[in-house]
Amino acid sequence: MSKIPDRTKFLEDLDNAVNQFLDHKYTKVIAISHNDADGISSLHIIQNLLYRLNISYDYFVYNRSVSWSNYLQGILSKNKTEEIALIFTDVGSNLTELIPIINERKEHFYILDHHEIDVDINAVEIPDNLFFVNPTTAGYDGLDHIAGATLAYMFAKKIKPSVIKQGWLTIIGIAGDTLRSMDNLESFNREIYEELLEEELIEQKKGLLLFGSMHESIKNGLKYSILPFVKGLGGEEDQKLTMFLKNLQINPNKKVVDLDIDEIEKIQNEAHFNSDGYYAVLPQKQGILKFAFEHALLLNILCFKNINAALSIMQRRSTSFYVKGIYYEYIFNLVKNLKTLINLPREENDKAIFVKASGGIPPSNWSDTASFTVINELTDPYKVFFLGGEEKRNHTIKLSVRCSRKYLEKNNGIGVNTIINRIKKELGGMGGGHKLAGGIRLSIPSFNRLKNNTDNFI
User: Fold this and answer.
1) Which structural domains are found in the chain, ordered by start?
2) Percentage of the chain surpassing pLDDT 70?
3) CA 34, CA 12: separation in Å to the nearest integer?
4) pTM for this model (two decimals)
């Protein structure tokens, strides 16, 4: 990836894909997207485009659990035709896998993705029926500069400007991918966000940011905030939180969004954290769904629990009792695990931190616990974080591996995916990931070698 973003190149790639789409009269389009908030938001944007164009379409959600060859085998017809297009959003940068498949087909493939690609784009021959748009090839950061939903929205709006009416979908993808307050958005994410504000499709508010619990009372907000996780208050008993707020002369039942400036300052000073700024709300929605971050978080949870519920929630104004239950179960468990993690024993050296989670945190929760540990800087942000333990059934060590954006900046963009590949090359094991997050399984002897020889891999 180049160091200086090339806006002209990216927009040329985008315009080329748009022009190709407009030049062809497709009888059917197949939309494929990723199973997370950004992917589902992108999918709905493309569905809205196709509906407005009166083009017949099917859609599929890809969870990366199988190879593209096996996955597409069940989607593509035996009859190859140029009258059908496939649009990939928030997935599709595994060009090593996809190009051989595309080369054998007549259908047109549009890949709109913001993940790093697995090859040198200048060293591969792009098939004539592939229209590949990925801002990372023009030097943009797919994490900070442009969400998948942002790219899908830009593509759709150029084809059919009236798609802007569904532009609010974009902010859900942005919120879910960047994990940032709105005043910290960058590049195309910021440009589209400001456009949506101007069109009055979303609203911007300023206040105390307790992401995960913005719809709650301040007592519950402090207790169940996952970004930030408030040390000393997160996951604590109601009595402790009530006493904390009453000592500040703040009503514990007052809504987070209703706090005034003085109350926000008192809470932050007393609890020793700083988290105020701008957040986005969806005026047409209620409760959890009214807040962009919470809406995105709910989508991410549902994608792994009930994909049909995830797909349908986008057009709903409020949540059902069933969906609320899933949301709160996730929040309660995550906060509990973050509180537990702070007190778990750890092995630390100059470059890495190893925390044994076995017995303290359920294995199914290791991945999200590791992610929010690093996001909240509950460990040193300049060290790689390993969370995991032994899987009894096969006597291997399962590890969730994470690093922070600060780590990437300090280490020239070399992150988790590179580290995991180095470990596999030297110690074996199975795993993978991207710059900030990944996972690996190792034998017990290999794990011990990793801990004792960290300098060889990081």
Assistant:
1) 7-198 (3.90.1640.30), 216-277 (1.10.8), 345-456 (3.10.310.40)
2) 99
3) 25
4) 0.92
